[in-house]
Specification:
This protein is about 50% helix and about 5% strand. β1 and β2 form a beta hairpin. By secondary structure, it is mostly helical. The protein has a domain of about 120 residues: Glutathione S-transferase Yfyf (Class Pi), Chain A, domain 2 (Up-down Bundle).
Length: about 190
């Protein structure tokens, strides 16, 4: 939303407190996940679906390249994050590891770091085949950058080793120089708790 310059009302759903499981939210979103966007009389869920909808209805600035091969590449990069990394570090998965499987905090964190790092190593290899530029695909941020940045913040929170992920971290740092990413980072959210 920030990259496209769209205004919005931010409503907090505190995942750690289980607010996503309250009837008032599950009646709106049966997945009980965030984000959810109400726009144009619709309720949209899943980050990449939301980005695709915004791209189709509010195309400028574009978050997908103009050429079909570029769009496919950016979508593949975004899906690598959304499908291969994020589900494994989702709060409900981490809670399952702790509460149901009874992993201690250290074991859970080792598990987390392993899967996130493995996913980011694959992402790093994919980036090496990208067109030259500051971002995941060239010199403008794309859907892939929007998927990457939150996962780096999650990885930082769990102290993932980013050694050897030079291109990935360079892209992250380039994104964080942009006001849109700065205003959307976790510490800038109205409900941030340190």
């Amino acid at each position: 939303m920030a990259l496209k310059g769209l205004s919005y009302d931010y409503l907090s759903i505190h995942l750690a407190k289980g607010e996503q499981l309250q009837d008032s939210f599950t009646q709106l979103n049966s997945d009980a996940l965030v984000p959810m966007l109400e726009i144009d009389g619709l309720r949209l869920t899943q980050s990449l679906s939301i980005i695709e909808y915004l791209e189709e209805t509010r195309p400028l600035p574009a978050l997908l390249p103009k050429d079909a091969a570029g769009r496919a590449r950016v979508r593949a990069l975004a899906q690598s994050i959304a499908s291969e990394i994020h589900p494994l570090n989702n709060l409900r998965v981490l809670k399952y590891l702790s509460h149901t499987l009874k992993l201690d905090e250290e074991s859970k964190n080792v598990w987390y770091k392993h899967w996130v790092r493995q996913g980011l190593q694959a992402f790093e290899k994919q980036l090496s085949a990208s067109p030259a530029g500051a971002y995941c695909h060239g010199d403008t941020p794309t859907m892939a950058d929007c998927a990457l940045v939150p996962q780096i913040f999650n990885g930082q929170r769990f102290k993932v080793d980013f050694t050897g992920l030079d291109k990935t971290m360079s892209v992250f740092n380039a994104c964080m120089e942009l006001p849109a990413f700065q205003q959307s980072q976790p510490s800038a959210c109205p409900d941030f708790e340190a």
